[in-house]
Amino acid sequence: MTNTNDMWEEASTFIYTCYEELGLCREAAEARLLDIQREIEDSGTYGHTQQELEYGIKLAWRNSNRCIGRLSWQSIRLVDARDAGSAEEVAECLFQHIRTATNHGKVIPLLTLFAPRTPEGVDPVRIWNHQLIRYAGYETSSGIVGDPASVAFTKEAMKLGWEGNGTDYEVLPLVIEIAGQKPVYVPIPKDLIMEVDIEHPDYPEMESLGLRWYAVPMISDMRLEIGGIQYPAAPFNGWYMGTEIGARNLADPFRYNKLPAVAKVMGLETTSEASLWRDKALVELNVAVLHSYRKNGVSMVDHHTAANQLAKFEEREAEAGREVTGNWTWLIPPMSPATTHIFHKSYSNQVKKPNFFHQPAPYTKNQDDNLPEKKFDQKEEANPALATCPFHG
């Protein structure tokens, strides 16, 4: 159940901040708050205006402590889908999100917003997927095929009737749950899915590994909170930072674990750790990822440029009189972190709102919906930098 006192306090803080930063007078903010107060008294909640939502999602990005790509926080676009009430309507909105965000590789930061949580605590819409586009994972007698991070969700999709092919890079269907109804799976049209085959400019043998990844990280399982209103379905995206794919998704031992295979095609000696074969393979895999995305015209940022962009963001925030908060363990890139300024400084991890919050997957039990951030888990995929922060994948 919603605590209306807390909602009112959160609404007041947000409206004053929003109106001030938009250059609107305090009298206008106070008049708006009177309307909000009446709404809360009458219904136990209130509705945001389009302007409030458009600025609220920008603030949520700016406040994302895990995101290295916050320099572009003002660029995110909003699609207001609060009226989508059926699984079919939600699916169509998600298809349009994928189409618009991908933009033939010129990625557009985008957030599609569905109906908020009711005063009774009911979520009108939930998207079960961690990301709108992600690869399936299958447990087999000889090990896991595909993405190990997707094994649990893949099982749930199959329980609903989806039939996968059991291959390494198979895109999962969307799973949509409407309040009071059974969840349904909806395959994503293949023409909406942009993928990149990974090749290396100097090691053509790497192409034989058949590595690939999807173009855009679109996070779909986080809860957005703006002014005390909870939006449990608010998929959003930025663009990838190369290391999220090359140093994590394809490289982590508990993900695709491709470093040994990369080392082999490079002809590296792997019998001794002192040869630093893992490091050499890691660098070249990341070179391949950056090269392949660039060759295919897909937006991506390297981790050094991303770190420089964060430094610029920090400068601009200081000029605006705002402290930059951050989660150091997530801001440092997973490759060569000591070569960036981030490694050598500290950040307050204070959580500001509006913001994105983790919430339990509908198919899991005994998880806490109120934690602003999970404790750092090395087995968890790095968030996307609107350059899966929440904004890189």
Q: Give the tally of β-strands.
A: 16
Shape: globular
The computed structural class is alpha+beta
Helix count equals 10
Distance linking N and C termini = 32 Å
The oligomeric state of the chains shown is single chain
Strand order of the largest sheet: 1-2-13-10
Low-confidence stretches: 366-388
Mean pLDDT: 94
What is the total number of structural domains? 1
Strand content: 5-15%
Radius of gyration: 21 Å
Describe it for me?
Residues 366-388 have low confidence and may be disordered. The chain contains ten helices and 16 strands. Helix content is 33%, strand content 13%. It has one domain (48-216, 227-357). With 393 residues, it is of the alpha+beta class. A four-stranded mixed beta sheet has the order 1-2-13-10, sandwiched between helices. The protein has a three-stranded antiparallel beta sheet with strand order 3-6-7, with helices on one face. A three-stranded antiparallel beta sheet has the order 12-11-16. It has helices at residues 4-21, 26-43, 50-62, 87-102, 151-159, 242-249, 259-266, 277-295, 303-319, 328-331, and strands spanning 77-80, 110-113, 125-127, 137-140, 143-146, 174-178, 184-186, 195-197, 212-214, 218-219, 223-226, 229-231, 236-237, 240-241, 300-301, 355-357. Helix 4 (87-102) links the parallel strand 1 (77-80) and strand 2. Helix 1 (4-21) runs antiparallel to helix 2 (26-43) and helix 6 (242-249) packs across helix 8 (277-295).
